[in-house]
Amino acid sequence: MEIVMVIILFIIIMILKVFEPNIKGYIGESQVNSVLAKIDEYEVLHDIMLKTETGTTQIDHVLIGRKGVFVIETKNYDGWIFGDEKSKYWTQTIYKKKSRFFNPIRQNYGHVKAIEKIIDEKYKDSLHSVIVFGYRCKLKKLTVITPVIYLNDLKKFILKFGNDIKLTSEDIRYVYTTLSNANITDKKLRRDHVKMVKAKSRENR
């Protein structure tokens, strides 16, 4: 009986280990969803997939309001985070173990460019990239221009954001509708995109 329990426990641990990145990602995006839902007078799109010249790209959140269009990339990591604006990879350090991950600023730059190709050119200056990290990490040494903030600062950042360009209610409706219509919902295409992202992640380790 004890052997059976040990085997079952081992299987559970292995399953959790395999799906841990997906679980963490889902939790992080859910936490951001909750924060964005509390910001009044903004339209929100979550988990949208758009066509690009090389395939598809998946965007965590797009917040649309009078102050602009905020393209938000979510990272729910542990440990200390190091990085700069232009490097290809950033570093995550947990005790003495270091691992690298693709620079989220560069990643989100691709998201912004994908949106630029879909909406009218006059909205280009209204697009703002924001990188949001969860509660469990420490942003130790970042040399960046693009906003990289903690989740608990997100609402305050949006509300205090200063921008001379103001979107009208018609502008907001246009951007929201255009992105909604361009969003890829086909399940197979979404599965293919996830496989492609995982393959690239393995190559970059």
UniProtKB/TrEMBL annotation:
InterPro entries named among the record's database cross-references: NERD (IPR011528)
Domain NERD span(s) in chain numbering: 24-138
Top-level lineage group: Bacteria
Record's protein name: NERD domain-containing protein
Naturally occurring in which organism (per UniProt): Clostridium gasigenes
Lineage: Bacteria, Bacillati, Bacillota, Clostridia, Eubacteriales
